[in-house]
Amino acid sequence: MIKAAMELNVSEHLFKGALTIDELAKLTESHAPSLQRLMRGLASIGIFKCNEERKWEMTPLSTILHKYFKHFSSYLLDYHVAWTSLTEVVKTGENQFEKLYGTGYWNWSNTNPKILNNVVQAYRESNEIFCSKLTDIYDFDQFEQIVDIGGNSGWLISRILKSTKKVTGIVFDQIEVIKEAEKQKIDTKVLKRMRFVAGDALVSVPSGGDCYTMKWVLGDFDDAAALKILSNITNVMKKNAKLILILPVIKDDNKQNFGNFLDLEQMFLGAGHERTETELRELLKKAGFRIERIIESGFDLCDIVEAVHE
To answer: Where is the O-methyltransferase C-terminal domain (predicted)?
Structure first.
């Protein structure tokens, strides 16, 4: 569905204003009844919506399909073939990505410069959509040094440092990602208070932080690997430090939530999965953490989980 909407440039047309299905069909050179069915399917997962005037319009999620966010669109298309394995994944419970591409997802993306660039840029673009208000919701000014595990392009740390006065930050990720991240344009004043560190969170993480953040990271790993990363953080974090997870907390009500789509994506890209509040509490407890509170940001993908070391 998403691929079809991208190829038809639906977001480009609706970005200018709401349209009836006939108006949209004319602009996209489509069969109106078939286009209507596609739009209904996309609306069911929060991409586009139909207003009371029976006109189709944008939603925050449909913004990612706009050409302005070309890297995010390219990122989705890079691995769309993997979706063809979904039936086999559901039948067996086993990831099929390696069979299709000859290697695991992260090795595949990290060793292909074009795809890696799409990944880094896509994270930056999606952050602008989903996470731009995080610093309005949570007080990061209470910390001295924040270590962002899996920090990718450095967007989160740079956004936090812009909103604070004295906080310093470390962007921690794999060497290939760090090399790409260092190419990003970051405000000079902010850059003076941050640094990039390469490494493997499954082995160790930088010490000295009184806040450790992970945004859209924990869901990439199964429980054993996630526990290893959390334990590595526990081993080096300062006394009274906090762990801030930014991720979708899966609800048990099975209602429309884009976090469910992300969880499905995790299922065929690797061994990871998104987690419910109960699952998060149990996992964090094993690593010695206690969840203090969960703050809903208004976007399905960016709940803020605040935890402390017990």
So the answer is: 83-290
Q: pLDDT by residue (tens digit) across 182-221?
A: 888 888 889 999 999 999 999 999 999 999 999 999 999 9
Compute the distance between CA of residue 37 and CA of residue 52 in angstroms, rounded to an integer. 18
Whether the CB-CB separation of 3 and 76 falls below 8 Å is answered with: yes
Report d(CA 147, CA 177) in Å as an integer: 16
Residue 140 one-letter amino acid: F
The superfamily in CATH containing domain 122-309 is: Vaccinia Virus protein VP39 (3.40.50.150)
Residue 223, CA distances (Å) to 238, 240, 242 in order: 24, 25, 21
- Cβ atoms of residues 289 and 243 within 8 Å: yes
Q: What distance, in Å, lies between the first and last C-alpha atoms of the chain? A: 45
The per-residue pLDDT for range 23-59, each reduced to its tens digit, is: 999 999 999 999 999 999 999 888 899 999 999 999 8
What CA–CA distance (Å, rounded) separates 149 from 164?
A: 19
**C-alpha to C-alpha distance for 242 and 292, rounded to whole angstroms:** 10
Phi (first) and psi of residue 202, to 5 degrees: -75, -15
Burial 220-240 (b: 16+ CB within 10 A, else e): bbebebbeebbebbbeebbee
1-58 and 122-309 share one CATH topology? no
- pLDDT over 70 (residue 92): yes
Global pTM value: 0.81
Amino acid of residue 107: N
Q: Is residue 125 predicted with pLDDT exceeding 70?
A: yes
Write down the architecture of domain 1-58 according to CATH.
Answer: Orthogonal Bundle (1.10)
What 3-state DSSP class applies to 254?
coil
